[in-house]
Amino acid sequence: MTDRTNSLEKDDHMITKRRFVSMACAGGLAAIVPDAIRMASAQTASRMLVGFGAGGTIDVIARRLVEGMKDQSLSFIVDNRPGAGGRLALGALKSGPADGTAMILTPASSFAVFPHVYKSLGYDAFKDFAPVTTVCSFPFLITIGPMVPADVRTLADFVKWCAANPKQATYGTAAAGSMLHFTGVSLAKAGRFEFVHLPYGGPGGIQDLIGGQIAATIYPIGTALPHVQSGAIRALATTGSQRSPLLLDVPTVREAGYSALEANEWFGVFVPANTPAGTVNRLNEAIRAVVNTDAFKTALAKLSVDPAGQTPKEFAQLIKSDFDRWGPIVQASGFTPED
């Protein structure tokens, strides 16, 4: 490297430094936050943490999201940190850099349900993170299988059948301590019957439902949909506020007479607390721009997931609302986690 090259690099560094100081003194610091994010991204491996293994729905969405953000010169890699239902990844993010180079895509349960479930959570849902935006949302689907007689056609019919057949009134979900689990708890409370929960740690409950080992399942609509469409299982109701365009003949829980079961899971992006507001807003704008593209919407549709996008303030309000809603349900259930 020549002396002239060294001199030019020093001059460029001084110009950049003087420009930063000048803009900060002029009150223009917020205006260069996007540049700060880009520079940090170029110098370090900016990461979007995902608390689940590669290949799952949330992992696929995260990878689509970071791919779309490249068009805005924001370079992130997906960093899978599976374990403890996503809690390990949130613990890692808590101590991560608060400069826009570390964020996480995580489900609603992490903030709406887990704080009510775990005595030692490893993070404070309202102090350790700054909400950026929701990315997508989806309802759950309540389904029954061959264990339940064919003349059980509605959710009300199923509640009556469960009350009359308490030893067979079982339901499977992906995980204990999740919104899926407590949706079943809500149904049992509303219908005044005993509903035995069987956590599968994944989609395996669907196969046991098809095989007649359990009476019902509550899973995300995308998990159960192919088996409903094939006729292997029957859908009783969705937990969304409106009928799913994927199953227009299936009523909502409100239409079925059980409005207390209405629920949507969301996936949202968070950054560490103390991340500058300007950086949070820039990430919000970038992510929502990706969510609004036709390519991203098409990718979500293939997963039976709906696009969503809120301002940081709107997202914070949603988190608080969901936290308040699920707290009494969890506490009334008496559920105690094993870990």
Characterization of the model:
- The chain is α/β, with parallel strands linked by helices and about 350 residues long.
- The protein has helices spanning about 5-25, 35-45, 55-70, 85-95, 110, 115, 155-165, 180-190, 205-210, 220-230, 275-290, 295-300, 310-335; strands at about 45-50, 75-80, 100-105, 130-145, 170-175, 195-200, 215-220, 235-240, 265-270, 305.
- Strands 1, 2, 3, 4, 5, 6, 7, 8, 9 and 10 form a 10-stranded mixed β-sheet that branches.
- Helix 8 packs across helix 13 (about 310-335).
- The longest helix has 23 residues, at about 5-25.
Low-confidence stretches: 1-43
Structural class: alpha/beta
Shape: globular
Q: Estimate the mean pLDDT confidence.
A: 88
User: What is the rounded Rg?
Assistant: 23 Å
Can you count the beta strands? 10
Helical content class: 40-55%
β-strand amount: 15-25%
Q: Helix and strand succession? A: HHEHEHEHHEHEHEHEHEEHHEH
Give the N-terminus to C-terminus distance in angstroms: 58 Å
Produce a short descriptive summary.
Helices cover 44% and strands 17% of the residues. It has 339 residues and is α/β, with parallel strands linked by helices.
Q: What is the topology?
A:
Elements: H1 3-25, H2 33-43, E1 47-50, H3 57-69, E2 77-80, H4 87-94, E3 102-107, H5 109-112, H6 114-117, E4 129-144, H7 155-164, E5 170-173, H8 179-191, E6 196-199, H9 204-210, E7 216-220, H10 221-229, E8 234-238, E9 264-272, H11 277-291, H12 294-302, E10 306-307, H13 312-333
Parallel strand pairs: 1-2, 1-3, 5-6, 5-7
Antiparallel strand pairs: 3-9, 4-7, 4-8, 4-9, 4-10
